[in-house]
Amino acid sequence: MASWSSELGGRVPPADRKRRALREGLVGEEPLIAVGAHDAMSARLIDVSGFDAVWVSGFGVSAMAYGLPDLNLVTMSETLDVTRRIDAVTSLPVVVDCDNGYGGFGNVVRTVCEFERAGVAAVCIEDNLFPKRNSLYQGAAIRELVPTKEQARRLRAAKQAQETDGFVLIARVEALIAGHGVEAACERAVAYAEAGCDAILIHSKDKTLQQIEGFLEAWGTTGLDVPLVAVPTLFPDFSATELKQKGFAMVILANHPMRASVQAMEETLAKLSGDGRAADVDSAIAAVDHIFELVHTREAIEAEEAEVR
Ligand code: SPV
Ligand code: MG
Question: Is the full-model pTM beyond 0.90?
């Protein structure tokens, strides 16, 4: 974990180190596991729990930091603001869900540039049209996406604008989610890989994994070795190791800290809403000292007092 002072601009682990760790993880023997954060505290907890990367979840930031649905209502600069706070408190590589880049061609390129300059390890850009819909939302049937050629053009321009070697651009394919089928999904993945993207996130909500298996088979015939990324929210029975064996380099557990927090808060508030006795929940919630410890309170006070001695 980054030191307490990193939030104050102190010893932030260099962006290069985080980017190197991400790139090495993408080609490693073990699956690289990223977990979704929605704020700095959730990122700290992911860090101390021993995961490999932090995913800045658009769904999580929308719901938890802004109380808004995941429909492109949170802007690029709002996401960047939350991302900076997250990146400052973790030594893990941070992979940012930048939705569809918040608009058209110029927005995609600017988004990637701004996040690269902010020092994050990676950005993920999806091919949903603006305004997007969260991929897990069951209401939407077959949807239109940004045309493949246009999305590839945006991604290629973003890669060409890249200023550092280590930064990673992940292209996210929504074709399976949008109901376009395996062939269309593979065509998009190939186009985005050929545009220079460093990894492909193939999203699916098929619980049986048949779609994903079909995609992997088609992808296998292309000869491309760009790493693949899975988000198994709706096929949760498959472990990261099983997904690695199937061909995924990275697995994103995108929203579990958010859902755990909401459930814990709801349970606590329900108990408190009885006669408002704090003791009713005390044994089931984090101790105040634990929160002090997580944000390095003692170290901060010691450092402050040492200066005046
Ligand atoms: C997110 O965490 O915001 C994601 C993953 O994009 S999903 O919600 O599964 O689309
Ligand atoms: Mg998202």
Answer: yes
* Distance between Cα 48 and ligand 1 center (Å): 22
Residues 300 and 249 in one domain: no
Ligand 1 atom nearest to CA at 59? 3
What is the total count of domains within the chain? 2
Closest CA to 189 of 248, 122, 135: 248
pLDDT at 1 over 80: no
**CATH code at 199?**
3.20.20.60
Pair 37, 182 in one domain = yes
pLDDT tens-digit readout, 132-171: 988 888 866 678 999 999 999 999 999 999 999 999 999 9
Phi, psi of 263 (to 5 degrees): -65, -45
Structural domain span for residue 20: 4-255
User: Average pLDDT, whole number, for the chain?
Assistant: 94
The whole-angstrom separation of Cα 268 and Cα 274 is: 11
Domain termination site, one of 213, 236, 255 = 255
Centroid of ligand 1 to alpha carbon of 134 (angstroms):
7
CA 309 – ligand 2 centroid, Å: 49
Helix (H) or strand (E) holding 160, with range, is helix 148-160
Last residue of a domain, one of 230, 255, 280: 255
What atom of ligand 1 comes closest to residue 172's alpha carbon?
6
Q: Identify whether residues 146 and 280 lie together within a single domain.
A: no
Q: Where are the beta strands (DSSP E) in 140-232?
A: 168-173, 199-202, 228-230
Catalytic residue at 70? yes
Which of 182, 209, 231, 208 minimizes the C-alpha distance to 58? 231
pLDDT tens, position by position, 181-203: 999 999 999 999 999 999 999 99
User: From the candidates 39, 52, 70, 97, which is the catalytic residue?
Assistant: 70
User: Do 85 and 68 share a structural domain?
Assistant: yes
Pocket of ligand 1 (CB under 6 A): 36, 57-60, 97, 134-136, 231, 233, 254-255
